[in-house]
Design a protein that fits this description.
Chain lengths: ~350, ~180
């Protein structure tokens, strides 16, 4: 929240600065601006102009010796001036400029409806990332990591909240599919339990509405930024064998690295689980995964913001330079066919 | 399998990771896979595709992209390169050979041999401290990752008991892979 407010404040300052630059202060104005001790009081008196829809900001502009009022549309000028006059301001006291609206900056840990891939989700006492929205057997919901459920590998009715609070208003779904990890299956080493994906399916519920085919997007990869600036659009499903791939998760945001191993049987540290045929991704120069990124969507960028969905992230090394994800082939092999766009 | 070089042998790999991965986009396996039907349960793995190449080009043992952008193709008989090129284009799609071209590298093992040994070597994952088992087609080897050097010996012993040629396996140390959920508070 503090971060958001700070950004908002900075945004307002930036707008004010731009407004100043656009106006091109004249020497006369600067001279006349000096010595107006009443300017801030006037600004305060004009606060009711915010009751007019479309007023973006007011600023006691010392350099101009006026209160600058930012509006979305110049056509509002008459209305603003009339209101200002009613509040005791003369025509010379205010200057009206057109400006763009200021939005609060949303992050991957904020609430989002319809629910999008890459955002923070909460279950029990843990947070993870939403993998991707999907329709399974006619049921709309989403996929995340199997270990992001109360009992990994069993259907236990784990409830998911977005973004954080375990209250009815934030409930978005309940786990309905989480196949067991099996012993003695094909390719599973003795004494271990195996699956081909660390994934489950959560049926949408409560306040959850789901945008199929969208993944939250931050401004650039490997910056650690969690500020959402738009979306990626899933235009296909596929498998990566090489080259750069991406993920968006609630802890490290948009991370990008290169595929270093495919179809690799991977032992999960601290458990007796082996995940079969997983894909490894590495970036030696950036932290691309940390705790809380589990479940995150993994995708390849095809052009612009169009992407091919590849799977969901579940693990990484402790330094955060490598992540491992379950390819879609393994996910759909275990959860069943999924419509993702 | 390992499509790009994070590894020491052949030595060229260690230095060509960035170029190799960038150039590997040309090696259009991923794009081919993307064109497959949405029913992903029927998707072939990259290993499956490489085995298909071997069926058309006997002696094929994997491939990788060199620092100079050329595709290096492991073959027991280097004279099989034209057949391998054709097979790669058939399986991975037109344009899958980089513009810089392809050349043959003498391989010691075929894909099918490596695939069989990789399946068998999977049993070492029952040993503590083993992180992965991978058919590493960029090295023409089976790769086994262990958390630290103390794990090598038990791994080597088990591999020997599984009748896998020692020279066909590369054992390397790597970071353990942990699930990445986080406590909410």
């Amino acid at each position: 929240m503090f971060r958001t407010l700070r950004k908002l404040r900075l945004g307002l300052l930036a707008v004010a600065a731009l407004a100043f630059a656009a106006g091109g202060p004249s020497g006369d104005r600067v001279v006349s601006a000096q010595g107006r001790p009443d300017l801030e009081a006037l600004n305060q008196r004009l606060l009711p102009v915010f009751e007019l829809a479309g007023v973006v900001f007011t600023d006691a502009d010392e350099t101009r010796g006026r209160v600058v009022v930012g509006v979305l549309d110049r056509d509002m000028q008459g209305l603003v001036r009339a209101t200002a006059a009613r509040l005791g301001a003369s025509a010379q006291d205010i200057e009206i400029i057109e400006t763009e609206p200021i939005f609060q900056v949303a992050t991957l840990r904020d609430s989002i409806r319809p629910v999008q891939a890459g955002y923070q989700i909460r279950f029990s006492q843990y947070v993870c990332s939403l993998g991707f929205n999907a329709i399974r057997n006619g049921v709309l919901g989403f996929v995340t990591a199997s270990h992001c459920s109360t009992n990994q590998g069993s259907i236990d009715g784990t409830e998911y909240y977005q973004p954080l609070n375990q209250v009815e208003g934030e409930l978005i779904g309940t786990e309905t599919v989480d196949p067991p990890y099996v012993r003695n299956g094909k390719g599973c080493p003795k004494g271990r339990v195996c699956r081909s994906s660390d994934s489950n399916f959560v049926a949408g519920a409560g306040s959850g509405t789901f945008a199929l085919g969208t993944i939250a997007r931050t401004a650039a990869p490997n910056t650690g930024s969690l500020d959402v600036v738009g979306t990626f659009t899933i235009t296909g499903e596929g498998a990566a064998t090489s080259g750069p791939v991406n993920k968006v998760g609630r802890t490290t945001g948009w991370g990008q690295g290169n595929v270093t191993r495919t179809c690799t049987n991977t032992g999960v540290s601290g458990s007796n689980i082996v995940l079969l045929c997983q894909t490894w991704v590495e970036n030696r120069n950036a932290v691309i995964v940390q705790g809380g990124d589990s479940g995150a969507p993994v995708f390849r960028i095809d052009g612009g913001t169009n992407v091919t969905l590849l799977g969901n992230l579940w693990g990484g090394n402790s330094s955060g330079t490598q992540f491992v994800y379950s390819p879609l082939s393994g996910i759909e092999g275990e959860l069943g066919a999924l419509q993702t766009q | 399998m390992k499509p790009s070089g994070r590894i020491a042998a052949p030595p060229l790999f260690a230095t060509c990771l960035v170029l190799a991965t960038a150039a590997a986009v040309l090696l259009d396996g991923e794009h081919l896979a993307a064109r497959q039907p949405q029913n992903a349960t029927k998707m072939e793995t990259h290993d499956d595709l490489l085995l298909r190449v071997e069926r058309a080009a006997p002696g094929f043992g994997g491939m990788y992209v060199e620092k100079d952008g050329r595709l290096a193709v492991y073959l027991k008989d280097r004279a099989q390169l034209p057949a391998a090129r054709a097979a790669i284009e058939t399986v991975f799609g037109p344009g899958s050979i980089p513009a810089a071209g392809a050349h043959a590298v003498t391989g010691q093992y075929t894909m099918s041999e490596l695939a069989a040994w990789t399946r068998r070597a999977g049993r070492v994952l029952s040993l503590p401290g083993v992180v992965f088992v991978d058919l590493d087609e960029a090295r023409n080897r089976v790769a086994v990752g262990v958390e630290d050097d103390s794990r090598r010996q038990p791994v080597q012993r088990m591999l020997a008991s599984l009748d896998i040629p020692r020279a066909a396996v590369v054992v390397e140390t790597t970071d353990p892979i942990e699930p990445v959920k986080r406590h909410a508070r």
